[in-house]
């Protein structure tokens, strides 16, 4: 039969974002793929050259809009490296809590989009409902449900609101039972198991060589996580373990393993948040005023030419890095070059190659299981 | 491909699960069953109560709005068909926004106070410092300012001295005599050009005695003039415009202002329009509810009034000395001022110390208040003065320092006493009268008795 | 308690690495030094500078002998005003202790037990390119697969050519962008189009007559 290229065009309900995946099919089997990105290239790196360090933070939220808190945290760590600022410990705890709540919300968004890909439309409603709980918590912290602009160079914008700790604990307790419900529904579902197991194998060393990181690699049996390997914030003081799954084949991890890793990560995020709320210095029920030295230290606003800042951060989808060179416009008020490393930018071509050999119906399963977010891919 | 063990037809997938789900759904439609077996019938999070994250305030708020919001609690809805027998069956699950709001129907939801919502600006306290304009990443804020002579700065008579004074590094203006004739015959309605400017602006370089050295803005020349010929001028905001269409609600402008004039209210409505020009918000569309931000505004204005009072005190002390001493160098004059004037410390004090000093001053003024009319009270008898609108925690402390603890004392204030108390607690002039503290206190007393 | 690599492990890894690198490449124009971050745990990382002609050899050594298996970021920068260099490429790598595992087993690494080449390490390689409008760097696409798309992005946005890179194409800019258009070069300035300077009507549908037919 003749082979033909099919375009899963930029607008497609299952590609989880705006990118084109061109697949060459021979009957039902995928023979070759090509990924085209750049549809939502907004030029954040160029815009950042015309903005102050504080003004860049809202742009970094919008890189991966589903996981905004982790991205602005990641940028802020790089800016703190550049400007050499110390962060108070309470601020680090708050950043940890915010990042883990964001990780929960992001994984729920992933699951809520992944389920319908496989055919389980109920998951979309359940996950969105539960994600609302965490979006409300993040709304209390950051002032809006999606783009918070919350961390600041030297700390955070404002302290945990009054009553936040009680609400967070109640919601997490509720949610931990919900994860059990999800697993009950999915792991006993024939369709789910048949569609995910045995599909989309990826080996650990291949992935690392290709630049894939994060839960995708942890699904292949190695518990490498930037949070302990290149430590930042107070992850060594809260109770947690990186979630890791045993791969089911010599060929590596399949989609089912990647799904299980993220369920485990949700559990670990719950555990981390509860522990951080217990251990936060100053107590989770105290509310310090904005600008108090417990939550932010005054930071210089200019960086000289030749100074650089680098941050290595575990975003929801992998390891993200920011590299800032100082000495830009305004006598150093702006960055000279802001370079953003997005894990998904490298993963998507890798995913495109992983699909070769499987059926067309496996494309959404494989693509969804790697959790693409095109916002961070195209910047 | 080998078949999956769970892919073969089995009783659980084909009969038991569908039966269970249908039964649960059928039973859920009866609210009394749903309330009796919430966990088993899967009622959770929406349309039920969650005592673990429901607090008194939310519960009170939900109950008080229930009859407006929850359709099933309304007896008659003229615009929809309702069934009397099973209102729950016919009740739409949709939240009929904008008539109902989700945060009113689900009591544990709330839009937090720090939500980055519609922008609100208190134009009265805006000093046109342009910090917000500079920090906006998207260039949303446009502000036009102009050098102007403020009428208040140069009033004479009973309002004299309320405005700012000439200061080195500030601006000054001299009246241009040559335009008076033209201005008298100028008709704003039919004229085709702007009226001639009646002020000539300059930057103040130095002040000494009764003369000032200024540099004119138009020519750049320096000149020494008498201070009496000059009026104070300042950069004042003429118009401001916030482009909500471009705004990304990041909240940086709110932080840059130092929280005194620029807010993001927690309103998420009222920002729609048909054209992009509709989204250019000017002063009228950025109104903040005075009741919400009143204490912040009053605090800010009281701070500025205090600063002005201190400056006036210094000026009065300087004027009270004989002419000879004025010629002496500055440090000596400063010293003398400290001795003669009110105990005002020029050094920057810590917030706590400032507060303590203020309360101390107020305590001393209590001898000026006529307690025969008000009646005396002690701290043990004190009422919660914060219930009065316009009284916050700090104002309450100041009233207590003055010796006013109870509602009955406040209700007995005469018009003259209101002014005295207003001045004693260093509050914005006229505020006690405007907010009718005496009447409010009378009402509260009546309510308490009844 | 969460585990984490300790400062001693990190320092040991950095010094071992830099010693090895000095031994291999010292004196050939490659400089190696240990820098410290000022953020987070203030860990050490290795910064190397390399002249373009030695880059492929260094890259091969990094990948196959030093175990640096993760190419994470390639940053190209244009320095039109600088006297020392005109273009710069910064490569960031990580050495990750990730190996394939047997099916149904997991390699649960314990941070405090890692040693030697298994300790995660950040490596930065800076290549400065001389004056000129056509900067060229040898490609390392065959050495790390992850460098592939990073190099495409660097060429697309900054204009640095990678010699030996197969199938170079535009990745973030549109495919039909003009030849020689690389937005992150410093001669391109960001312009802010106020909408009433762009459009003739209030709704924003009709372009101004002078801009008829323009896209941007």
Task: Give structural notes.
The complex is a heterotrimer of chains A (379), B (450) and C (216). Chain A contains 15 helices and 8 strands. Chain A has 379 residues and is mainly α. Chain A has one domain: Cytochrome-c3 Hydrogenase, chain B (Orthogonal Bundle). In chain A, strands 1-2-3 form a 3-stranded antiparallel β-sheet. In chain A, strand 2 (20-26) and strand 3 (29-36) form a beta hairpin. In chain A, helix 2 packs antiparallel against helix 3 (68-83). Chain B is of the alpha+beta class and 450 residues long. Chain B has 4 domains: 44-105, no CATH class; 119-177 and 198-289, SH3 type barrels, CATH 2.30.30.140; 290-346, no CATH class; 351-450, no CATH class. In chain B, the strands form 2 sheets. In chain B, strands 2, 3, 4, 5, 6, 7 and 9 form a 7-stranded antiparallel β-sheet that branches. Residues 324-349 of chain B have low confidence and may be disordered. In chain C, strand 3 and strand 4 form a beta hairpin. Chain C has a 5-stranded mixed β-sheet with strand order 1-2-5-4-3. The mean pLDDT of chain C is 85. Chain C has helices at 7-25, 55-65, 147-158, 195-198; strands spanning 31-36, 44-49, 70-78, 87-95, 121-129, 136-138, 161-163. Chain C is α/β, with parallel strands linked by helices. The N and C termini of chain C lie far apart (54 Å). Chain C has 4 helices and 7 strands. Chain C has one domain (7-176): Beta Polymerase, domain 2, CATH 3.30.460.80. The longest helix of chain C is centred in the first third of the chain and has 19 residues, at 7-25. Chain A binds chain B through residues 51-52, 54-59, 62, 129, 133, 136, 139-140, 143-144, 147, 149, 157-158, 161, 163, 166-167, 170-171, 173-174, 188, 190, 193-194, 290, and chain B through 4, 6-7, 13, 44-46, 50, 52-53, 55, 109, 111-112, 114-116, 135-137, 248-252, 255, 259, 264.
Name the CATH architecture of chain C: 2-Layer Sandwich
User: How much of the polypeptide of chain B forms β-strand, as a percent range?
Assistant: 5-15%
Q: What share of the residues of chain B lie within helices? A: 25-40%
- Please give the CATH class of chain C: Alpha Beta
Q: Could you give a short account of the major beta sheet of chain C? A: 5 strands, mixed
Largest interface: A-C, 74 and 58 residues
Largest sheet of chain B: 7 strands, antiparallel
Element-by-element helix/strand order of chain C:
HEEHEEEEHEH
Q: Which percent bin holds the helix content of chain C?
A: 10-25%
Gap between N and C termini of chain B: 84 Å
CATH architecture of the largest domain in chain B: Roll
* Tally of separate domains of chain B: 4
The average pLDDT value of chain B, as a whole number, equals 73
Q: Total number of helical segments of chain B?
A: 18
Given helix and strand content, the structural type of chain C is alpha/beta
Shape of chain C: elongated
The residue-averaged pLDDT of chain C reads: 85
Tell me the overall shape of chain B.
flat
